[in-house]
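Hi R.,

As promised, here are both runs. First protein below:
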Amino acid sequence: MGAQQRVFKAKINSTKSLRKIFKAMELIAASRIQKAVSRVKAASPYATALTRAVSAVATQSNVEHTLTTEPEQIRRSAVVVLGPDRGFAGAYAANVIREAEELVGLLRDSGKDVALYTVGGKAESYYTFRDRKIERSWTGFSEAPSIENAREIGETLLEAFSRDYEDGGVDEIYLAYTRYKSAVSREPEYRRLIPLEVVEAEDGSSIPQPRTELRQPSFDVDQVFPLYEFEPGAAEVLDALLPRYIDSRILAALLNASAAEQSARQQAMNTAVDNADELIKTYTRLANTARQAEITQEITEIVGGADALAASGAGD
């Protein structure tokens, strides 16, 4: 076997080995997508109902509460970036980090300090490599988050939210994550977690909504809440709902990010398998071409040698 054939043969074998790895990762991601999507669908009704409950309490009472009251001056904002722990997911990590950087830029342009919190090894390594200060980071559960993970993040954020600005506290909290839309569609977005933005409905009532940064809320504000009586009072109800609201929203974002990560990884690995197939075809064609060239050269040398022997025999 010629030198060129050995080179192409080695490339074909290594590409086939990589293809097996890509195919295995694609199948693993595909098997996890349905479970992740099921968890998103199971968690969404609770998070939505809890938001409606908070909205109902705030709408039907005039009590001022940190959950629904806009601070007079917002000096520091917390931004929580939800990224993956592992790679091999295409541009998934880059897209959510780009979305977070857009939010950070807008907040700083408006004169606010930014406190960064990260979830996932990719987001942490991005800011660490650039010597950006991270207040707190969490890793190891981006693919399978639990309510305990959401509660730990929520407690840390609420503790920072309850502190004064001079003590390193924050006045508002944003989440930057990827929302799962379908198996082939994912949308990075950022959303303000607290305080809820109060939006005036058509009937003149005030309805708090999670705010998507400086954009208009994407929720239907023309909703009518049933009448409630609060015992012992609206403020106490909001105090009880605050940690549950934070935990449910963070968990919903984590689950969306998990489903989006598996979807992105499955799609990226499928593309990698297709590229590997194309490379194998290309290397096989080049190897056959090199083999044909070597055979042609050998035949040419044999014919040339025979002609030389015939010419020398005729001369004798």
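And here is the second one, sequence first, then its structure tokens:
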Amino acid sequence: MIIATEPDFWRAHSKHPLLDRIGTAPKELLHYVTAVNAAAYPEAVSQPVLPYQIPSDFLDDIRGAIAQLPEIVQTKLESCLLGVFLASGVGSSAITDVVVQQDGRLLGSVVLLDAEVFLTRSANVWMTWKESTPFAAHSDVQLNAQIAYPEDDHRQQALQYLLLHEFGHVLSVDTEFLPNWWLGSQKFKDTEEYSFLSICWQIAMNGDIIPLIRHNFEQRSKITYYTKPQLDAECMSAVYQSLSHTSFPTLYASTTVYEDFADSFASFVHVVLMKKPWQIQIFQANQPVLRFFDFWSSSRAQRKAQIFAKFLQASP
């Protein structure tokens, strides 16, 4: 949560047309993310998050990515997205957080993208890199991800999918889907009062949000992204086989309830509303051994599909 020292800046930015709420990250946002990274990884050498001057072609790609989203998604973002900003050294592809006034009143949400992640990566290359980060590299085991057809496999499509994920975080704020992430657990309601959370998760007696037994699996607690991998590449197939028995559409979704909502939202809009591909393939010794895809056509997706269809006024 970012406590604004200059709330008028954020208010003014939120009044721009949606496609004009893009820019180089302001100092307040850079300082906040730098502090968060230092607290999260105290053993690492802390590097400041730096502003990134946006080239015109990069700006065009971000605008194009947002402009091509379904109208209902853009409409919902109008009232709650303060802006999309760029920096370098973020520590992941992007982060999203809320901005509040000094008295705690919510101003909206901001998205910070790491521009360097996308300088040389197309959509499928970026997704393959990201989805490989939980696993230690192995010469005989590879993961291949597809979120774009060959003719659309470029940076704009990578940015669009990432933004959909971050916009999922933005649109989850102050909803009955799940608790606000910046609140202490003492302010959480009961599990059953959150329509999305209760599908795969539960609020434990100590306030922790943990997966329901039927949606948990052995390797889940070791899944981490963008940090030192805790899983060997040889277990990729086993991990995805376990995932296929849950109601998580992606591996990233299994990490926390907040990533579950954001990645489920991104996947639903991308696959169901925009009719774009999404699949993971695993190869051993250059031979395909597993294909993970078609979540939204399966029975295990039914409850999530109903929630998103209602939220986005679409047919399930």
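A quick note on the second one: The CA atoms of residues 63 and 137 lie 34 Å apart. Let me know what you think.

Best,
J.
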